[in-house]
Structures are given as structure tokens and as C-alpha cells.
Write a sequence for this structure.
């Protein structure tokens, strides 16, 4: 148990609490925007490093929702945050970010390269205190999202019963 076979990715086993933690996203394109939205929805403080940003990210920066460093990645950037996202369109830069983050014991997600990731972002659905997460270990994120949507519709119908069970269990303790 716990040992991976050749050509298998390691198992991932945690959900992280990111509230008020600094998370660094290197890149300013559409993928970076999706990652930033996920981080913001979790309450993280987000720093984006990129010479250019998608218009919504520019709006986030103007509104003070994110910190924006208008420049390319520099050595040391991947040591600044609790969690790092490498979302550039340059694989060699993403690898450099991953190695730097790993060396400084930071969690790192490299878009489009699961082998370099120390964490994955699953497709999630949340209803009150129930959270469902689906992961394909980065191999088929669109399929994970589709399964999440299917499960979400099932969860919506069973959530009230599940919430009542949780409340009843707490009252017994």
C-alpha cells in the first residue's frame, strides 16, 4: 500500500485550507485565470506574476482582489507562497518553477504536466458542509468535470437528507 507502480502517478490525499494564505500564480492567460478564480473562491491571497494578463485578471488587480507583478518569472518567485501554480505557456519555465518550489518545500501545480505536480486541483462541488471532489490525476480534467456535474445533480437531491444525518449525529455526541 502507498507504493506506486512504474508509470503511475503518486496518490493525493488532502484538501488544503487556503484562507489568507499567499498563493503565487505564474502566468496570466486563460488557464491562470481559472486557477486564480479557484484560489480566490477558497479565500486565498493571490499574487499573479506575468508580463500580460487576461482582461478579467487586470480587473481583479485594479479592484485589489489580487496582487499583480507585471514581469516575467524570476528565481525566488516560487519560494514566496504557500502554494505555487506554474501556468505559463513555456514548459521550460514551468519546470524551473516546479523544481524551485519543490526544493523549498512548497506545494506546486504545473498545468499540463501532472508528473511535476505536488498537488492536484480536483473538480469540486460544494453544497453546505458536503464537498465532493473528483480527480483523474491531471490526465482527463474535462472528464472529471463532467462526472462532477453528474454527481452534483445527484447530491442536490440527497443533500437535505445527508445534512439531517450529520446534524443528528452531532446531537448524539
Amino acid at each position: 500500500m502507498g507504493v506506486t507502480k512504474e508509470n503511475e502517478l503518486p496518490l493525493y490525499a488532502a484538501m488544503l485550507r487556503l484562507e489568507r494564505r499567499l498563493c503565487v500564480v505564474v502566468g496570466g492567460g486563460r488557464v491562470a485565470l481559472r486557477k486564480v478564480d479557484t484560489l480566490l473562491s477558497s479565500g486565498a491571497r493571490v499574487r499573479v506574476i506575468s508580463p500580460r494578463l487576461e482582461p478579467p485578471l487586470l480587473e481583479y488587480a485594479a479592484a485589489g482582489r489580487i496582487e499583480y507583478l507585471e514581469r516575467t518569472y524570476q528565481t525566488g518567485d516560487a519560494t514566496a507562497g504557500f502554494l505555487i501554480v506554474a501556468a505559463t505557456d513555456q514548459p521550460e519555465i514551468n519546470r524551473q518553477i516546479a523544481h524551485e518550489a519543490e526544493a523549498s518545500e512548497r506545494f506546486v501545480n504545473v498545468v499540463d504536466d501532472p508528473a511535476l505536480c505536488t498537488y492536484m486541483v480536483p473538480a469540486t462541488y460544494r453544497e453546505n458542509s458536503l464537498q465532493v471532489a473528483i480527480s483523474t490525476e491531471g490526465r482527463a480534467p474535462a472528464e472529471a468535470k463532467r462526472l462532477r456535474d453528474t454527481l452534483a445533480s445527484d447530491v442536490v437531491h440527497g443533500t437535505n437528507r445527508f445534512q439531517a444525518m450529520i446534524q443528528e449525529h452531532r446531537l448524539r455526541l
